[in-house]
Write a structure and sequence with these properties.
By secondary structure, this protein is an alpha+beta fold. The protein folds into 2 domains: about 1-65; about 65-195, Sandwich (Immunoglobulin-like), CATH 2.60.40.10. Helices cover about 30% and strands about 35% of the residues. The strands form 3 sheets. A 5-stranded antiparallel β-sheet has the order 6-8-2-1-11, with no helix packed on it. The longest helix is centred in the first third of the chain and has 49 residues, at about 15-65.
């Protein structure tokens, strides 16, 4: 019986039970820290995926609103200077409609002209629909000719002479810039296709 009492007393004085309680507290602390860490990682991942989604949608909107040139550029001249330059445009496959109203004050397509001596960031142009409806909105399946008058006049642009390298930038409200760079030949014909 004495051995039994000594065994019970030694168990009562033993601190092995507290070690188990400390282990449980440490385990719970690890679980709480891991949960907080997982929450932070998931929140950061969701935030970055949302930003990535916004970037993808912005890129798609830019690509879908792009126009492309169809055919070549035709220039007409008289007296050794260019009168008009014209080219046909259409939307790219699956592209959104593009406004082509030259008289609009906002949400409009702007043409810029540059050569070695001139910079004109808002060139006056006219629009002639070839196929599709006759509105000033370039929609899928439509073909429109843009004509730029380069004849010298009062408050007009400087004349384009032979052997001039020039660039037109067609800047749409949404979409990539259509960059058209050509060179005029050494001798100007009345009607020329520029390459």
């Amino acid at each position: 019986m004495r051995t039994f009492k000594q065994g019970v007393a030694s168990v009562a004085r033993s601190e092995r039970g507290i070690t188990g309680l400390e282990t449980a507290i440490i385990l719970i602390a690890f679980v709480v820290v891991a949960t907080v860490f997982a929450f932070v990682v998931l929140t950061t991942g969701i935030f970055s995926s949302e930003r990535g989604k916004e970037t993808v949608f912005a890129g798609l909107a830019k690509a879908r609103g792009t126009m492309e040139m169809r055919g070549g550029i035709v220039a007409t001249s008289t007296g050794g200077v260019i009168d008009d330059i014209q080219f046909a445009v259409a939307t790219t496959a699956g592209g959104d409609p593009i406004p082509l109203d030259p008289a609009a004050t906002n949400n409009r397509t702007v043409l810029a002209y540059r050569d070695e001596t001139t910079v004109d960031n808002d060139v006056v142009y006219t629009v002639t629909p070839i196929s599709g409806d006759a509105d000033n909105l370039l929609e899928a399946g439509e073909l429109t000719v843009i004509t730029i008058n380069r004849a010298t006049g009062i408050d007009g642009p400087p004349a384009m002479a032979a052997n001039t390298r020039f660039t037109f930038e067609v800047q749409t409200p949404v979409g990539a810039v259509l960059d058209i760079t050509r060179s005029l030949p050494v001798a100007l014909d009345p009607v020329m296709q520029l390459h």
